[in-house]
């Protein structure tokens, strides 16, 4: 990875700023407004410092998420390359649960395929086949993203520093071996309040959701991390993210994997 432009005290300060915005559910201006020279390495340095702070407070690492891995998402947010963020236990919500909105800034929901691994993955050249072989099962998932930036407006270094907008995620459906379902061509129906919001195929995610996981492993390797066995990996929104507010109910129905739903309160 390229060199950081920020000093280590700036990195710590920005991680604190993002952390506070998250805890107060108060939007902040994107970090590059103040630090225009911020690059991707700076973004990940801030994100890893944010992760270190959360783990030091007792949150447990449960896995990672790939972001901006489909055309629909790239067009929606104006970021044109995939990114990764981390997941902790405090972000997980059970199927059908009520997700609070008062502790979020401006949530949006995405439907994704979650991978759960049974072998560690590492390396700059991780392949789709290695990902499939190391996967225990896949599940349908909803990711609730929540940019801490005003207007949900950001650029790549800023969104990476903000942990790729990670906020909550819900898994549901049936665990299936990735070898038993054609992950490349799964249809998904995404509904909000009973109305179709999006119809898509899983192939929208970098051609294949396992390729998104392989990309994530390559980024983690660059960051000096690996993907441990037992990790949850969200492979990226298949459709555009949909704005939600208290009172909304969303569900994603995946061919062969069942459905996952949540309501917002
Ligand atoms: C960045 C996170 C994107 C996905 O699945 O593409 C993401 C954002 O859009 O705020 O989680
Ligand atoms: Mg996502």
Task: Please give a quick description of this structure.
This protein has 265 residues and is of the alpha+beta class. Helix content is 27%, strand content 28%.
Protein model, in words:
With 265 residues, the chain is an alpha+beta fold. The chain has a single domain (8-264), classed as Fumarylacetoacetate hydrolase, domain 2 (Alpha-Beta Complex), CATH 3.90.850. 27% of the residues lie in helices and 28% in strands. The chain has seven helices and 13 strands. It has helices at residues 8-24, 31-34, 40-56, 71-77, 128-134, 156-161, 209-222, and strands spanning 61-67, 83-88, 92-93, 98-99, 108-117, 135-145, 166-171, 187-192, 195-201, 232-234, 242-243, 249-254, 258-264. Strands 1, 2, 3, 5, 6, 7, 10 and 11 form an eight-stranded mixed β-sheet that branches. A five-stranded mixed β-sheet has the order 4-13-12-8-9, with no helix packed on it. The protein starts with 7 loop residues before the first helix and ends with a strand. Bound molecules: 2-oxoadipic acid and magnesium ion. 2-oxoadipic acid binds next to strand 1, helix 4 and strand 6. This is 2-oxo-3-hexenedioate decarboxylase. Residues 89-264 form the Fumarylacetoacetase-like C-terminal domain. It comes from Hydrogenophaga laconesensis. Keywords: Lyase.
